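FAQ

Q: What does a record look like?
A: Structure on top, sequence underneath. For example:
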């Protein structure tokens, strides 16, 4: 923290600020300029938030972020949250969460679960308690809905997400669902945030209707600091003056969040727009700006849905959106497609000897491929100024993320990332060696000129 004193601040006022800092067990570093004095403070500055009110103080500037656990330590740092066999964040495949706004009946839920699973969603959504603006609107089926969700999970293998509205319900949610959703209206319900912080399940924290990104990250900090590291953020639109859409889906929040936090980010184009016709476009846009997942409302009969029918996609519309996500390669393949792709790589052949031969053969091809990659990297280096610092960090990060998305096979994204990390390091080493030899040769030539 930096405390900037007014130009007119007296010696006593400066001493007063320093004393106040030290009285709170922190260190003050004075820098006396020609015009004003500036005081640097190191340590837990939460305790001295009053400094701005002391006499002689012009402004107090916070240097470190107030959300310690949610904030990024190094550029590009990302966390992956695991929900059963589904991973979200840090280069995971785009995770599609889909299902009805509210669980209405067994038939409605199971039918929707089968549809979204077939189309490639990994997580089934469905509200059991609905925080509705009007007390006369459908409020959700409660516990029976949680049981239906668990049944749908058993039937399809999808993981389950549902909104918890009461801190006392966290335990029963823990039993039935895989992800606890904290809704927009409860983003600053601090009792609820602390309660889901005690849960062993992942938490999807929606952005409050009128919350800044900083308030949102501080809400995430409540969950993280209560001991639950598995927090996923969800942009679902904010209140603005615009009335053409239900909310204004703040897609710039996604890249902003990626600069500020390591937590996975989901975009909800359903609540973000409130209109079925707009959901597809904003889903694609969400994927394009770097969301790790999408949360989409789907209903077998949107016109007769008991909540949010206007923004719910029909099965056909959801299928068309998934096709488009696949065409643009935001989503790789349907589950059947995945299975098919692994079948295209038959591993089992006759004997052990045979298998070993095939491994040797694969290794030889791998060696050729990494040499080919290094030769290309070397050619790039030859064409650029040897004095300019080499590699393109963004491209490398993108490559690592793509690698982590993986191809079907036994390697986890983490293992694939390890491999690509090593390949990149070796390539850079080849480039560096070349650049050094050019610089040395130039120095030698300059020396002999003299
Ligand atoms: C929901 O996802 O069902 C929901 C109520 O969303 P939000 O909290 O974003 O309004
Ligand atoms: Mn809804």
């Amino acid at each position: 923290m930096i405390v900037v004193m007014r130009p007119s601040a007296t010696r006593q006022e400066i001493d007063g600020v320093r004393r106040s800092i030290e009285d709170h067990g922190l260190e003050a570093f004075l820098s006396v300029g020609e015009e004003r004095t500036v005081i640097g403070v190191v340590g837990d500055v939460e305790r001295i938030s009053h400094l701005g009110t002391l006499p002689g103080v012009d402004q107090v500037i916070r240097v470190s972020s107030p959300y310690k656990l949610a904030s990024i330590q190094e550029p590009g740092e990302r966390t992956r949250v695991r929900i059963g066999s589904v991973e979200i964040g840090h280069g995971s495949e785009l995770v599609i969460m889909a299902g009805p706004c509210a669980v209405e009946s067994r038939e409605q839920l199971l039918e929707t679960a089968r549809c979204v699973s077939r189309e490639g969603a990994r997580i089934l959504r469905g509200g059991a308690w609905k925080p509705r603006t009007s007390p006369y609107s459908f409020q959700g089926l409660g516990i029976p809905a949680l049981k239906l969700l668990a049944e749908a999970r058993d039937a399809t293998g999808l993981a389950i997400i549902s909104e918890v509205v009461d801190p006392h319900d966290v335990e029963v949610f823990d039993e039935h669902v895989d992800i606890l959703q904290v809704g927009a209206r409860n983003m600053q319900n601090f009792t609820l945030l602390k309660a889901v912080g005690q849960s062993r399940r992942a938490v999807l924290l929606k952005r409050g209707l009128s919350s800044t990104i900083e308030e949102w990250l501080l809400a995430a900090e409540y969950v993280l600091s209560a001991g639950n590291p598995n927090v996923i953020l969800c942009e679902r639109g904010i209140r603005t003056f615009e009335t053409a859409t239900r909310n204004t889906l703040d897609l710039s929040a996604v890249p902003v969040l990626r600069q500020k936090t390591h937590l996975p980010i989901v975009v909800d184009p359903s609540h973000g727009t409130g209109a079925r016709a707009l959901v597809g476009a904003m889903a694609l846009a969400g994927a394009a700006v770097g969301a790790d997942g999408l949360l989409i409302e789907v209903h077998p009969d949107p016109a007769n849905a008991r909540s949010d029918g206007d923004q719910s996609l029909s099965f056909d519309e959801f299928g068309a959106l998934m096709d488009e996500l696949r065409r643009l390669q935001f989503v790789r393949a349907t589950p059947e497609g995945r299975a098919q792709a692994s079948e295209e790589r038959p591993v089992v052949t006759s004997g052990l000897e045979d298998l070993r031969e095939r491994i040797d053969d694969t290794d030889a091809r791998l060696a050729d491929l990494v040499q080919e990659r290094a030769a290309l990297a070397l050619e790039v280096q030859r064409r650029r100024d040897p004095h300019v610092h080499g590699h393109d960090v963004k491209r490398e990060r993108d490559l690592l993320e793509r690698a982590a998305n993986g191809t079907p096979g036994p390697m986890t994204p983490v293992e694939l990332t390890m491999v690509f990390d090593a390949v990149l390091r070796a390539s850079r080493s080849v480039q560096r060696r070349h650049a050094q030899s050019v610089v040395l040769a130039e120095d030698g030539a300059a020396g002999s000129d003299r």
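Q: Is there anything notable about this one?
A: The mean pLDDT is 90.
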